[in-house]
């Protein structure tokens, strides 16, 4: 994409902040949507749960990237927090999609966040974008999240759903909790360790999002995961090799269920997700293997 004006929600998060840095480094003008009053020309006010967007601030944007949403693992899944998880994604996406659809000069592309959680627990079975949604809380949230972008798609804006896997990064997400444990020699498998984890290096996540922005004709769901998902046991061993630490400790499933409650199903569940459409569209991974991804994360 030639130098353009691009709006980003979730710009202060792990993925969003890395994307903003990448875009600005290449000369793009980035507009960040913020939940407070805008304090600089590169900020636009919005209220996701209140479904308000200062649409005038989006005028002239060639692309909108929607990455906002409450952290899945930030709190125990009480009924109240499950509502926060859902509303922060569904209501915010609906408001943003309606705002861009109503613009006199709508963006050419709307990339909206989603997650591989849409597939549910798939065991050892490989799945790709043709696989229907699974059952449970996270699949239902992801379905509503993607459906909320309908106004943008119906307005003729190319709409892409970035179904992101587990991002390997030291600065946030699941891996930010794993790195300190493994570096201290306290890392180990979770539960049986046979569950598949579909990971992606932060570098490749950002590159994939930019690929979605740049690739005309690519729309609908796209899995953002490395091409060779591994089991938790395999990833545990790889972490030990890269960090040169023992991985003798293991957290039994009952302990995880006691500590995490309903969220433990997401940790113990298995998702062997393949990036079929990403590869078909010509994307090349810089860090396709887990050891390379861990090294890149530092």
Radius of gyration, whole Å? 19 Å
- Helix content estimate: 25-40%
Largest sheet: 8 strands, mixed
Task: Report the span from N to C terminus.
Answer: 30 Å
Number of helices: 11
Number of domains: 1
The SSE order reads: EHEEEEHEEHHEEHEEHEEHHHEHH
CATH architecture: 3-Layer(aba) Sandwich
Short description:
By secondary structure, the chain is α/β, with parallel strands linked by helices.
Write structural notes for this entry.
The protein has 298 residues and is of the alpha/beta class. It has one domain: Rossmann fold, CATH 3.40.50. It contains eleven helices and 14 strands. The strands form four sheets. It has an eight-stranded mixed sheet with strand order 4-3-2-1-5-6-8-12, with helices on both faces. Strands 7-14 form a two-stranded parallel ribbon. It has a two-stranded parallel ribbon with strand order 9-11. Helix 2 runs parallel beside helix 3 and helix 7 packs across helix 11. The longest helix is centred in the N-terminal third of the chain and has 23 residues. The two termini are 30 Å apart.
List the helices and strands and how they pair.
Blueprint: E1 5-9, H1 14-25, E2 29-34, E3 43-47, E4 52-53, E5 63-66, H2 79-101, E6 109-115, E7 126-127, H3 137-147, H4 150-154, E8 158-164, E9 166-168, H5 173-183, E10 196-197, E11 199-201, H6 202-214, E12 220-224, E13 230-231, H7 232-243, H8 253-260, H9 264-268, E14 272-273, H10 276-280, H11 290-297
Parallel strand pairs: 1-2, 1-5, 2-3, 5-6, 6-8, 7-14, 8-12, 9-11
Antiparallel strand pairs: 3-4, 10-13
Helix pairs in contact: 1-6, 2-3, 7-11
